[in-house]
Amino acid sequence: MIDALWGWPPPVLDPAGPYADKVTTLAWALFGMGLVVTAIVCAALWLAVRGSPKIKAMIGGERAIWIGGIAFPGVVLLGLLVWGLTLTASLTQPIRGDEMRIRITGEMWWFRVQYLNADGDIVMEDANELHLPVGVPVVLELEAADVIHSFWVPHLSGKKDMIPGRRTLLRVQADRAGEFGGLCAEYCGSQHALMGFVAIAHKASDWQAWFDDRTTRVARTEMLAETAPPDAMPYPGDAAAYPMEPETLERYDARRGMRLFMESGCAACHRIAGTEANGLAGPDLTHVGSRRSLGAGILPNNRGTMMGWIGDSQSIKPGNRMPSYYVLSAEDIGHIAAFLELQK
Protein backbone atom coordinates (compact mmCIF):
# COMPACT_ATOMS: atom_id res chain seq x y z
CA MET A 1 0.00 0.00 0.00
CA ILE A 2 2.81 2.40 0.82
CA ASP A 3 4.42 1.81 -2.58
CA ALA A 4 1.09 2.40 -4.27
CA LEU A 5 0.21 5.64 -2.55
CA TRP A 6 3.57 7.42 -2.53
CA GLY A 7 3.37 9.04 0.81
CA TRP A 8 0.70 7.04 2.58
CA PRO A 9 -0.22 7.38 5.37
CA PRO A 10 -0.24 11.10 4.66
CA PRO A 11 1.41 13.29 7.30
CA VAL A 12 -1.17 15.67 8.70
CA LEU A 13 1.34 18.33 9.84
CA ASP A 14 3.39 18.76 6.66
CA PRO A 15 1.56 21.37 4.55
CA ALA A 16 2.38 21.78 0.87
CA GLY A 17 0.07 24.72 0.16
CA PRO A 18 -1.50 27.80 1.75
CA TYR A 19 -4.80 26.17 2.72
CA ALA A 20 -3.18 23.23 4.47
CA ASP A 21 -0.68 25.63 6.06
CA LYS A 22 -3.44 27.51 7.88
CA VAL A 23 -4.96 24.27 9.16
CA THR A 24 -1.54 23.11 10.35
CA THR A 25 -0.85 26.40 12.14
CA LEU A 26 -4.19 26.15 13.93
CA ALA A 27 -3.48 22.53 14.87
CA TRP A 28 -0.09 23.41 16.37
CA ALA A 29 -1.66 26.29 18.33
CA LEU A 30 -4.31 23.96 19.75
CA PHE A 31 -1.68 21.37 20.65
CA GLY A 32 0.42 24.04 22.36
CA MET A 33 -2.48 25.49 24.30
CA GLY A 34 -3.51 22.00 25.30
CA LEU A 35 -0.06 21.41 26.75
CA VAL A 36 -0.15 24.71 28.66
CA VAL A 37 -3.57 23.94 30.17
CA THR A 38 -2.51 20.41 31.06
CA ALA A 39 0.62 21.74 32.78
CA ILE A 40 -1.46 24.24 34.80
CA VAL A 41 -3.91 21.53 35.86
CA CYS A 42 -1.07 19.19 36.86
CA ALA A 43 0.59 21.97 38.88
CA ALA A 44 -2.70 22.74 40.63
CA LEU A 45 -3.18 19.07 41.46
CA TRP A 46 0.34 18.82 42.85
CA LEU A 47 -0.14 21.91 45.01
CA ALA A 48 -3.52 20.62 46.21
CA VAL A 49 -1.84 17.44 47.44
CA ARG A 50 1.64 18.58 48.48
CA GLY A 51 1.22 22.31 49.02
CA SER A 52 1.13 24.16 52.35
CA PRO A 53 -2.22 24.63 54.14
CA LYS A 54 -2.26 28.25 52.97
CA ILE A 55 -1.82 27.21 49.32
CA LYS A 56 -4.46 24.50 49.63
CA ALA A 57 -6.91 26.97 51.07
CA MET A 58 -6.22 29.42 48.27
CA ILE A 59 -6.69 26.80 45.56
CA GLY A 60 -9.92 25.56 47.07
CA GLY A 61 -11.36 29.04 47.59
CA GLU A 62 -14.31 30.48 45.69
CA ARG A 63 -12.16 33.08 43.97
CA ALA A 64 -9.85 30.40 42.54
CA ILE A 65 -12.85 28.53 41.15
CA TRP A 66 -14.20 31.65 39.46
CA ILE A 67 -10.85 32.59 38.00
CA GLY A 68 -9.33 29.22 37.21
CA GLY A 69 -12.47 27.24 36.51
CA ILE A 70 -14.61 29.72 34.59
CA ALA A 71 -12.85 32.95 33.59
CA PHE A 72 -9.57 31.47 32.39
CA PRO A 73 -11.09 28.68 30.21
CA GLY A 74 -13.66 31.10 28.85
CA VAL A 75 -11.08 33.69 27.81
CA VAL A 76 -8.74 31.07 26.34
CA LEU A 77 -11.45 29.30 24.33
CA LEU A 78 -12.97 32.56 23.10
CA GLY A 79 -9.56 33.81 22.06
CA LEU A 80 -8.77 30.61 20.20
CA LEU A 81 -12.16 30.69 18.48
CA VAL A 82 -11.73 34.25 17.22
CA TRP A 83 -8.13 33.69 16.16
CA GLY A 84 -8.96 30.36 14.49
CA LEU A 85 -11.86 31.82 12.51
CA THR A 86 -9.68 34.73 11.39
CA LEU A 87 -6.83 32.45 10.43
CA THR A 88 -9.00 30.08 8.38
CA ALA A 89 -11.28 32.72 6.85
CA SER A 90 -9.76 32.14 3.42
CA LEU A 91 -10.97 28.53 3.47
CA THR A 92 -14.59 29.63 3.41
CA GLN A 93 -14.38 32.65 1.10
CA PRO A 94 -16.95 32.59 -1.70
CA ILE A 95 -15.85 30.91 -4.93
CA ARG A 96 -15.11 33.54 -7.59
CA GLY A 97 -16.15 31.37 -10.50
CA ASP A 98 -13.02 31.77 -12.62
CA GLU A 99 -10.91 29.21 -10.75
CA MET A 100 -9.86 25.93 -12.28
CA ARG A 101 -12.44 23.29 -11.33
CA ILE A 102 -12.23 19.54 -10.94
CA ARG A 103 -15.16 17.38 -9.90
CA ILE A 104 -14.50 14.43 -7.58
CA THR A 105 -17.21 11.91 -6.76
CA GLY A 106 -16.98 9.41 -3.93
CA GLU A 107 -17.99 5.90 -4.95
CA MET A 108 -17.96 2.52 -3.16
CA TRP A 109 -14.88 2.53 -2.66
CA TRP A 110 -12.98 4.75 -5.05
CA PHE A 111 -12.87 8.35 -6.31
CA ARG A 112 -14.12 9.43 -9.75
CA VAL A 113 -12.15 12.46 -11.03
CA GLN A 114 -13.52 14.70 -13.83
CA TYR A 115 -11.68 17.69 -15.25
CA LEU A 116 -14.03 20.51 -16.27
CA ASN A 117 -13.70 23.33 -18.79
CA ALA A 118 -14.77 26.93 -18.20
CA ASP A 119 -18.37 26.03 -19.05
CA GLY A 120 -18.44 23.19 -16.53
CA ASP A 121 -18.37 20.46 -19.18
CA ILE A 122 -16.36 17.32 -18.57
CA VAL A 123 -13.30 17.21 -20.82
CA MET A 124 -11.46 14.27 -19.27
CA GLU A 125 -12.12 11.61 -16.68
CA ASP A 126 -9.80 9.62 -14.46
CA ALA A 127 -9.93 7.77 -11.16
CA ASN A 128 -8.14 7.87 -7.82
CA GLU A 129 -5.57 10.42 -9.01
CA LEU A 130 -5.71 14.20 -9.06
CA HIS A 131 -3.18 16.11 -11.17
CA LEU A 132 -2.65 19.74 -10.21
CA PRO A 133 -0.47 22.62 -11.46
CA VAL A 134 1.84 24.03 -8.79
CA GLY A 135 0.91 27.44 -7.45
CA VAL A 136 -2.61 27.48 -8.87
CA PRO A 137 -5.66 27.43 -6.59
CA VAL A 138 -8.11 24.76 -7.68
CA VAL A 139 -11.73 24.38 -6.62
CA LEU A 140 -12.82 20.80 -6.11
CA GLU A 141 -16.52 20.06 -6.61
CA LEU A 142 -17.16 17.20 -4.22
CA GLU A 143 -20.09 14.81 -4.67
CA ALA A 144 -21.08 11.32 -3.54
CA ALA A 145 -22.81 8.65 -5.60
CA ASP A 146 -23.99 6.45 -2.76
CA VAL A 147 -23.18 7.17 0.89
CA ILE A 148 -21.34 9.94 2.74
CA HIS A 149 -17.61 9.98 2.07
CA SER A 150 -15.03 12.60 2.99
CA PHE A 151 -12.22 13.86 0.78
CA TRP A 152 -8.92 14.59 2.48
CA VAL A 153 -5.42 15.22 1.16
CA PRO A 154 -3.74 16.56 4.34
CA HIS A 155 -0.83 18.14 2.46
CA LEU A 156 -3.17 20.36 0.47
CA SER A 157 -6.19 21.32 2.60
CA GLY A 158 -8.59 20.28 5.31
CA LYS A 159 -11.11 17.53 4.74
CA LYS A 160 -14.59 18.02 3.32
CA ASP A 161 -17.60 15.71 3.35
CA MET A 162 -18.97 14.28 0.10
CA ILE A 163 -22.75 14.08 0.55
CA PRO A 164 -25.23 12.34 -1.82
CA GLY A 165 -27.47 14.85 -3.58
CA ARG A 166 -25.35 17.82 -2.56
CA ARG A 167 -22.25 19.44 -4.06
CA THR A 168 -19.66 20.86 -1.68
CA LEU A 169 -16.65 22.95 -2.67
CA LEU A 170 -13.09 22.72 -1.41
CA ARG A 171 -10.08 24.83 -2.37
CA VAL A 172 -6.71 23.13 -2.69
CA GLN A 173 -3.35 24.42 -3.81
CA ALA A 174 0.08 22.83 -3.99
CA ASP A 175 3.08 25.15 -3.72
CA ARG A 176 5.62 22.45 -4.52
CA ALA A 177 5.72 19.58 -6.97
CA GLY A 178 5.29 16.13 -5.53
CA GLU A 179 2.93 13.26 -4.85
CA PHE A 180 0.65 13.51 -1.86
CA GLY A 181 -1.43 10.73 -0.38
CA GLY A 182 -5.08 11.15 0.47
CA LEU A 183 -7.93 9.07 1.79
CA CYS A 184 -11.61 8.95 2.64
CA ALA A 185 -11.96 10.42 6.12
CA GLU A 186 -15.57 9.35 6.80
CA TYR A 187 -16.50 5.76 7.55
CA CYS A 188 -18.42 4.69 4.45
CA GLY A 189 -18.57 0.91 4.60
CA SER A 190 -16.56 -2.22 5.18
CA GLN A 191 -13.74 -1.20 2.81
CA HIS A 192 -13.54 2.42 3.94
CA ALA A 193 -9.93 1.91 5.04
CA LEU A 194 -9.02 0.81 1.49
CA MET A 195 -10.28 3.97 -0.23
CA GLY A 196 -7.06 5.78 -1.03
CA PHE A 197 -6.11 8.59 -3.33
CA VAL A 198 -3.02 10.25 -4.80
CA ALA A 199 -2.64 13.95 -5.69
CA ILE A 200 0.22 14.72 -8.08
CA ALA A 201 1.42 18.33 -8.31
CA HIS A 202 3.31 19.28 -11.50
CA LYS A 203 5.11 22.44 -12.47
CA ALA A 204 2.60 24.55 -14.37
CA SER A 205 4.21 23.92 -17.77
CA ASP A 206 4.48 20.19 -17.08
CA TRP A 207 0.85 20.05 -16.00
CA GLN A 208 -0.28 21.77 -19.21
CA ALA A 209 1.78 19.32 -21.28
CA TRP A 210 0.28 16.42 -19.33
CA PHE A 211 -3.24 17.76 -19.79
CA ASP A 212 -2.76 18.43 -23.52
CA ASP A 213 -1.34 14.94 -24.03
CA ARG A 214 -4.30 13.33 -22.30
CA THR A 215 -6.96 15.33 -24.11
CA THR A 216 -5.22 14.95 -27.47
CA ARG A 217 -5.02 11.21 -27.04
CA VAL A 218 -8.74 11.04 -26.22
CA ALA A 219 -9.64 13.16 -29.26
CA ARG A 220 -7.38 11.10 -31.53
CA THR A 221 -8.74 7.74 -30.45
CA GLU A 222 -12.33 8.95 -30.69
CA MET A 223 -11.66 10.22 -34.20
CA LEU A 224 -10.17 6.88 -35.17
CA ALA A 225 -13.21 5.12 -33.78
CA GLU A 226 -15.50 7.25 -35.94
CA THR A 227 -13.50 6.82 -39.14
CA ALA A 228 -12.49 3.16 -38.84
CA PRO A 229 -14.29 0.64 -41.09
CA PRO A 230 -17.34 -0.91 -39.40
CA ASP A 231 -15.72 -4.34 -39.21
CA ALA A 232 -12.42 -3.04 -37.83
CA MET A 233 -11.89 -2.41 -34.14
CA PRO A 234 -9.82 0.64 -33.28
CA TYR A 235 -6.75 0.14 -31.17
CA PRO A 236 -6.51 2.76 -28.45
CA GLY A 237 -3.29 3.63 -26.77
CA ASP A 238 0.08 3.68 -28.44
CA ALA A 239 -0.49 1.68 -31.63
CA ALA A 240 3.25 1.29 -32.13
CA ALA A 241 3.41 -0.66 -28.89
CA TYR A 242 1.05 -3.34 -30.16
CA PRO A 243 2.77 -6.46 -31.48
CA MET A 244 1.94 -6.62 -35.18
CA GLU A 245 3.57 -9.85 -36.40
CA PRO A 246 3.00 -13.34 -34.99
CA GLU A 247 6.69 -13.89 -34.37
CA THR A 248 6.87 -10.75 -32.24
CA LEU A 249 3.94 -11.66 -30.05
CA GLU A 250 4.62 -11.75 -26.38
CA ARG A 251 3.06 -14.33 -24.17
CA TYR A 252 0.18 -11.93 -23.69
CA ASP A 253 -1.38 -10.35 -26.77
CA ALA A 254 -2.83 -6.86 -26.27
CA ARG A 255 -5.03 -7.14 -29.36
CA ARG A 256 -6.56 -10.33 -28.06
CA GLY A 257 -6.84 -8.67 -24.68
CA MET A 258 -8.92 -5.89 -26.18
CA ARG A 259 -11.31 -8.38 -27.78
CA LEU A 260 -11.62 -10.26 -24.50
CA PHE A 261 -12.21 -6.98 -22.69
CA MET A 262 -15.13 -6.19 -25.00
CA GLU A 263 -16.58 -9.70 -25.03
CA SER A 264 -16.33 -10.43 -21.31
CA GLY A 265 -18.59 -7.65 -20.12
CA CYS A 266 -15.85 -5.27 -18.96
CA ALA A 267 -17.08 -2.63 -21.40
CA ALA A 268 -20.47 -2.58 -19.72
CA CYS A 269 -18.98 -0.92 -16.63
CA HIS A 270 -15.83 0.76 -17.89
CA ARG A 271 -15.12 3.37 -20.54
CA ILE A 272 -12.06 3.57 -22.77
CA ALA A 273 -12.10 6.59 -25.07
CA GLY A 274 -12.21 5.69 -28.74
CA THR A 275 -13.58 2.19 -28.24
CA GLU A 276 -16.95 0.55 -27.86
CA ALA A 277 -16.40 0.52 -24.09
CA ASN A 278 -18.70 3.19 -22.70
CA GLY A 279 -19.69 1.90 -19.29
CA LEU A 280 -20.12 4.49 -16.57
CA ALA A 281 -20.52 2.35 -13.46
CA GLY A 282 -16.82 1.71 -12.89
CA PRO A 283 -13.67 3.79 -13.20
CA ASP A 284 -12.81 5.22 -16.63
CA LEU A 285 -9.89 3.12 -17.91
CA THR A 286 -8.76 5.41 -20.72
CA HIS A 287 -5.53 6.17 -18.84
CA VAL A 288 -5.39 3.24 -16.44
CA GLY A 289 -1.92 2.20 -17.62
CA SER A 290 -0.40 5.42 -16.31
CA ARG A 291 -1.93 5.35 -12.84
CA ARG A 292 0.23 4.83 -9.79
CA SER A 293 -2.11 2.38 -8.13
CA LEU A 294 -5.01 0.00 -8.60
CA GLY A 295 -8.08 -0.60 -6.46
CA ALA A 296 -8.06 2.98 -5.10
CA GLY A 297 -4.56 3.00 -3.75
CA ILE A 298 -4.23 -0.51 -2.38
CA LEU A 299 -2.00 -2.05 -5.06
CA PRO A 300 0.93 -0.76 -7.13
CA ASN A 301 -0.02 -0.69 -10.80
CA ASN A 302 1.74 -3.40 -12.78
CA ARG A 303 0.72 -6.35 -14.92
CA GLY A 304 0.81 -8.83 -12.05
CA THR A 305 -1.44 -6.80 -9.75
CA MET A 306 -3.72 -6.00 -12.69
CA MET A 307 -4.15 -9.71 -13.37
CA GLY A 308 -4.83 -10.37 -9.71
CA TRP A 309 -7.40 -7.61 -9.53
CA ILE A 310 -9.26 -8.79 -12.67
CA GLY A 311 -9.23 -12.41 -11.61
CA ASP A 312 -10.25 -12.07 -7.98
CA SER A 313 -10.91 -8.50 -6.89
CA GLN A 314 -13.40 -9.72 -4.29
CA SER A 315 -10.69 -11.41 -2.26
CA ILE A 316 -8.60 -8.22 -2.37
CA LYS A 317 -11.39 -5.77 -1.54
CA PRO A 318 -14.51 -7.77 -0.54
CA GLY A 319 -17.80 -6.12 -1.40
CA ASN A 320 -16.51 -3.80 -4.10
CA ARG A 321 -18.63 -3.64 -7.24
CA MET A 322 -16.10 -5.34 -9.51
CA PRO A 323 -16.91 -9.08 -9.76
CA SER A 324 -14.17 -11.68 -9.68
CA TYR A 325 -13.74 -13.18 -13.17
CA TYR A 326 -13.30 -16.83 -12.31
CA VAL A 327 -14.69 -17.72 -15.76
CA LEU A 328 -11.57 -16.34 -17.44
CA SER A 329 -8.42 -18.38 -17.66
CA ALA A 330 -5.15 -16.99 -16.34
CA GLU A 331 -4.00 -16.69 -19.95
CA ASP A 332 -7.04 -14.61 -20.93
CA ILE A 333 -6.62 -12.38 -17.90
CA GLY A 334 -3.02 -11.82 -18.91
CA HIS A 335 -4.12 -10.73 -22.39
CA ILE A 336 -6.58 -8.23 -20.89
CA ALA A 337 -3.96 -6.91 -18.49
CA ALA A 338 -1.53 -6.44 -21.38
CA PHE A 339 -4.18 -4.43 -23.21
CA LEU A 340 -4.95 -2.26 -20.20
CA GLU A 341 -1.26 -1.71 -19.58
CA LEU A 342 -1.11 0.23 -22.86
CA GLN A 343 -3.88 2.65 -21.91
CA LYS A 344 -1.81 5.65 -20.89
Automatic annotation (TrEMBL):
Gene Ontology terms describing biological process: ATP synthesis coupled electron transport
Keywords annotated in UniProt: Copper, Electron transport, Heme, Iron, Membrane, Metal-binding, Transport
InterPro entries to which the protein is assigned, alphabetical: CcO_II, CcO_II-like_C, Copper_CuA, Cupredoxin, Cyt_c-like_dom, Cyt_c-like_dom_sf
Catalytic activity: 4 Fe(II)-[cytochrome c] + O2 + 8 H(+)(in) = 4 Fe(III)-[cytochrome c] + 2 H2O + 4 H(+)(out)
GO MF, one annotated term: heme binding
Keyword Metal-binding assigned: yes
Localization, UniProt: Membrane
GO cellular component terms given for this protein: membrane
Family classification: Belongs to the cytochrome c oxidase subunit 2 family.
Record protein name field: Cytochrome C oxidase subunit II
